[in-house]
Amino acid sequence: MKVTIKMIAEEAGVSMTTVTNVLKNRTDRVSKEKIELINDIIKKYNYTPNMNARSLANSSSNLIGLLYHSVGGRIDFSDPFVSELLAGIEEKTKDNGYFVLVYNIETVDDVIKVQKNWKFEGFIIVGLSENSFEEIHKNIPSDTPIVFVDTHLTADMEKEFINLPNRYIISSEDRQAGHEATKFLISQGHRKIGFLGFTFNENEPGVINERFYGFKKALQESSISFDYRFFFTDKEFEKITDVLEEITALVVSSDYLAINLIHYLRMRGLYDKKKLSIIGFDDVSYAKFLDPPLTTIRLNQKNKGIIAFNLLNKAIHGESVDKITNLSGDLIVRESVTNVASKIGKQARRKNEK
Amino acid sequence: MKVTIKMIAEEAGVSMTTVTNVLKNRTDRVSKEKIELINDIIKKYNYTPNMNARSLANSSSNLIGLLYHSVGGRIDFSDPFVSELLAGIEEKTKDNGYFVLVYNIETVDDVIKVQKNWKFEGFIIVGLSENSFEEIHKNIPSDTPIVFVDTHLTADMEKEFINLPNRYIISSEDRQAGHEATKFLISQGHRKIGFLGFTFNENEPGVINERFYGFKKALQESSISFDYRFFFTDKEFEKITDVLEEITALVVSSDYLAINLIHYLRMRGLYDKKKLSIIGFDDVSYAKFLDPPLTTIRLNQKNKGIIAFNLLNKAIHGESVDKITNLSGDLIVRESVTNVASKIGKQARRKNEK
DNA sequence: TTGAAAGCGCTACCAC
DNA sequence: GTGGTAGCGCTTTCAA
Prior knowledge:
2 copies of one chain form a homodimer. By secondary structure, the first copy, chain A, is of the alpha/beta class. Chain A is built from 13 helices and 12 strands. In chain A, the strands form 2 sheets. A 6-stranded parallel sheet of chain A has the order 2-1-3-4-5-11, sandwiched between helices. At the A-B interface, helix 4, helix 5, strand 2, helix 6 and helix 12 of A face helix 4, helix 5, strand 2, helix 6 and helix 12 of B. Chains A, B: Keywords: DNA-binding, Transcription, Transcription regulation.
């Protein structure tokens, strides 16, 4: 049998209001004796309020929407990159008394749907492009805070963004990460370097776009010209096999993609880590267990999830929060990159590994 | 501005009841013209009903609770074993118009909490021991269906379970899996075989317990006696190093644990796949990318998630459903197990790999 | 066919 | 301090 405020009020011989006041800890409005009495009854029946009624009555709900954006099913929970973020969020969220509704959004309609169906305290939305960002931002009332994870904005848009109330961004320094990854390859003597990433829109900022930008910048700084023949998307593994003799290294936009490529090549007897160095991004939990252990830029997704929640939590409580947070990546040197410049440095390659 | 039924009714010049009837497709109670008119308005405002109000008024909610049981934080979303299940569930769930609330439960109180806070259509609960199973089962009304994933019951309990309305179980044939894994090691000439698993209660059935049972059975069938010195928990890696010279193979209760062990040994210079064969369970997505590629029993978590949802969905709609579903595992032969019996068979070891 | 009204459980406002 | 009550948006029962 469901226990309600009314029942508690009856048993205690008080009004519903008084019970509510006790529930809400408005101690100045209820006498000490009643507080105790009511609390005892609450405990006795193990009463917990009905969230639907509560959400209906006011606007609070303790519900947080974790929305994953996926175009064409690209985002998959089995990708550790995704689940590690979730791990971070889930952990904090529960400790703070929230509930998380996980929803995969493909179109704006999906957002409108969750949005109207439930009352949310706030949203954490992952992986939105700038275009989708605008649409979605407009469709969620400005009194509901949103933390956008891994959304990148053009400079113009960013200026606007700064003034948007209740909208926050947390992402990695993807440009810097791409730059660092590439610089590392160059430092190891590589000159013919390719780039492999999930398909992205070159005219719109985004995680991969940013990494690609950092990649090109690093090449440029070393006066290396980039040959677009060495640019590949995740659908073009076979194109890579064609130029295997021409490139010595590859910047791959995620560990996940990197190991898939290695596997693809290996199955065809084409993988030789001495001849093709590979650096990834993320440092997923098993990157160090791979063959070869992956050299990568650690982005620490779990930590990102924790911070995303903290931002949201503060925003919900009306505390002031940084509009844009950028987490820097760390180069993790393992064994998928070979030094082709000299024989020295083989030791150094392990420095980051414990 | 939120659109409500009332507003729609006003604009259409009808009563709320009529709008509801259209919403519910009760076409026999409304005239054709009004149906069209109302539908137009609904479309125009992109109306979607408020779930909180709806849930409050009736008992439906379109909400499914995905509850992960973790004692001492053992279950972690970054463990692919967990996230792959979620991937399967999320996929189906959305297609069928449900929303998923993900919650990590540690105690029965946690269950009571979610349970009273929200109205759920049903639950998918993962990783419950028999004891917790009973407690939780009792605390959720019997008209709410629950699918228990990976819960194992003793024979007595199982008899009772069969008659419990709205309770279902889906799990893997863990005993058979343990048996198969061990038999494979034996077929490869191993005789000194150890077992490594997360700590478990020997008196209570459970995933690892079952695998261990199958393990012992296989040994027995080959008249190999089991030495408890070769039994290890996840906290006892160093105990393994002590007997490294004595055992030639290890059955490890999950891929996740297996790679952690390999890494642990490798870091100490103690890993030699020729001298220590390892077989895991799950076949997590990256098992084939590891060094060495892991020989394992594939359990297909994603598929399990899909099936779990299907069971629940049918149960919610009152269709009859199998009380207990068992998914069999498949031996996937890769390279972490060495044939110590003969020189032949090295070819065969690759047969399962594409 | 259509509509009025009660009630789901809770909160906030206002009165005593 | 305490209590009454309207109302959140929706569904269902009963009446017209």
